[in-house]
Specification:
It is found in: Cytoplasm. The chain has about 525 residues and is α+β, with helices and mostly antiparallel strands. The protein is about 30% helix and about 25% strand. It has an 8-stranded antiparallel β-sheet with strand order 27-24-26-25-29-30-28-31. A 7-stranded mixed β-sheet has the order 2-3-1-4-5-11-6, sandwiched between helices. Bound molecules: guanosine-5',3'-tetraphosphate (G4P).
Amino acid sequence: MKFTDEIKRRRTFGIISHPDAGKTTLTEKLLLFGGAIHEAGAVKSNKIKKGATSDFMEIERQRGISVATSVLAFEYNGVKINILDTPGHKDFAEDTFRTLTAVDSVIVVIDVAKGVEEQTEKLVEVCRMRNIPMIVFVNKLDREGKDAFELLDEIEQKLKLSVTPLSFPIGMGYDFKGIYNIWEKNVNLFTGDSRKDIEDTVEISDLASEELDKLIGEKAADNLRDELELVHGVYPEFDKTAYLEGDLQPVFFGSALNNFGVRELLDCFVSIAPTPRPKDSETRTVKPDEKEFTGFVFKIHANMDPKHRDRLAFIKIVSGVFERNKPYLHVRHGKNLKFSSPNAFFAEKKEVVDISYPGDIVGLHDTGNFKIGDTLTEGEVLNYRGIPSFSPEHFRYINNADPMKSKQLEKGVDQLMDEGVAQLFTLEMNNRKVIGTVGALQFEVIQYRLEHEYGAKCTYENLNVYKATWVEAKDPKSEEFKDFKRVKAKFLAKDKRGQLVFFADSQFSLQMTQQKYPSIKFHSTSEF
Ligand code: G4P
């Protein structure tokens, strides 16, 4: 197949949702359609149910054995689909933000009863800011939930999206009768007695036909006709360009658990979702069909087996083809590296691949060369943008609890930071090390992993910081900046890259500082 045809047939996306909305169930059903798995229950949930570290460890251990869950690839009607895993738990939001830099589109899952939830809001905001095309799937229609119009309103308001339904539910909960597929213009009836059967549906194509009245009853049929009239009156016609530009979001309804409405979603997705998109680097925009390979690391997965401390760096291919055993430039280190066993991911396994195309993800074994955001090329010095660090919200001093193991501690902390587990800061005034994280769970994770993977022990000490912000001075030589550095000396630190960071102890002090020093900018991400 031609290089450009390989690009055209790829769709790389992520499913985002608040925990419990049905992301894992939907993923599994998509894989079943692709024939990538043959039974339900094959996809491991990455859910942290109790919010406990032990849960996290268990998940990581399982993943260590089957890292394949990070990327699930399958073929459907000649299209190669790559699903990137995005943890729903809020403590791992940063992981998800970073994964979103590697997707070309997303599917947002919303629980029909709970509506738009907190995590969904945050993740959708990130996608919206980057104009990532989004399709919304309203799940659990087999349960009582919110009225469809009410929900569409809520999605528009809370998520600041402009929606247009491409399917519409007929009834809900116990009375759930099926879906009118606006996209394909047919009715799909939900008639499964057990409500668990796959594709136990009837199709009729004419909305006006009496057959509809016979099938769902006159009242429901009239109701549906009225509702669809309203849909056409209120919502814009679907427009693919608007969707691809992030200006319009189609909505589907269904029940992932019952495998209802999933095929419709998948068929539409395959036909409208974007092929690999161009990506901005610091110097230029790189197009997928450029001949030379470029790619970037968006995730590093540690091997949880202490005997093999190697890691797997996940590279998204942006342009060209990635070939096994060919030397590529590691731009940050300025040296060439060759990879003898790059992994491609499938639903239940990973395999060594000789060649991969734009949109694909390859996993490279790594002994500590990579950190998140690193770029690989065929020689061009180029750095991809868009993988910033975010302002952490939890802070603790980290102390060495075993003086004999200080080297191990240093190495462990260094590698964990490269993996993006947390951020390390060095206070300017006393050189003490501070760890900042997005979620509180990470502190335990770090402690556990330092001990089990590096043989090092650490303790923490509390530190009262509300937020860390990256400092940008208009003129670093100005009196204003000098004054800021003198007055705030106690609150200044450097991040791992040596960028200056201001630790505000409260929202109030951050505001006051901003007012006092108007020529200085305080950024909540490291990339500005
Ligand atoms: P997540 O990955 O987004 O966190 O959600 P997940 O798929 O694990 O689904 C959360 C719960 O919602 C699961 O139940 C799942 O079975 C259920 N669910 C998913 N889709 C539907 C649906 O269409 N209808 C109904 N009624 N339920 C749905 P659980 O009891 O938490 O887990 P499990 O023990 O059944 O796996």
